[in-house]
Amino acid sequence: LDFRYRLRWYILGKYSSVVFSTNRNTDDSLTEECLLDSAEVLVGSMIENAELQMCSDQDILATNNEMKLLNEFELEVKKKKKKKKKLQKKERHKKKSGIGREDNHRY
């Protein structure tokens, strides 16, 4: 369970803009446990395939499986951010150049 919370705080800390939308991370009917739901793809896969080891200083070591899943998640997030930036840039260019405006007619 401790690993679940560490994973949750890692994702919330590094990717809060991805997790939170309209100022909340869950539906109104759900609790914050939603982020720890083992049915969720990232969390469920990591916990199901977890090979965690405790160190002498009580830190948790994750294996390559866990790191691979986190890397896949991070790559997916980066791709989505790039796409979003590209679309925003395209929209700004449209607005700047007046493309799509109907008020550019000369009389």
Reconstruct the topology from this structure.
Blueprint: H1 2-14, H2 16-19, H3 41-48, E1 53-54, E2 60-61, H4 64-97
Antiparallel strand pairs: 1-2
Explain how this protein is built:
The chain is mostly helical and 107 residues long. It has one domain. It is built from four helices and two strands, in the order H-H-H-E-E-H. It has helices at residues 2-14, 16-19, 41-48, 64-97; strands at 53-54, 60-61. A two-stranded antiparallel sheet has the order 1-2. The relative contact order is 0.09. The model is unreliable at 28-32 (pLDDT under 50). Residues 79-98 have a biased composition (Basic residues).
Radius of gyration: 21 Å
Number of domains: 1
Quaternary class? single chain
Strand content: under 5%
Assign the structural class, choosing from mainly alpha, mainly beta, alpha/beta, alpha+beta, or little secondary structure. Answer: mainly alpha
User: Could you say which overall geometry the principal axes of the C-alpha atoms support?
Assistant: elongated
Low-confidence stretches: 28-32
**How much helicity do the residues have?**
55-70%
In DSSP terms (H or I, runs of 4 or more residues), the helix count works out at 4
SSE series: HHHEEH
Report the sheet with the most strands, covering strand number, pairing sense and barrel closure. 2 strands, antiparallel
Number of strands: 2
Distance between the termini: 70 Å
Question: Going across the major beta sheet, what is the strand order?
Answer: 1-2
Average pLDDT taken over every residue: 64
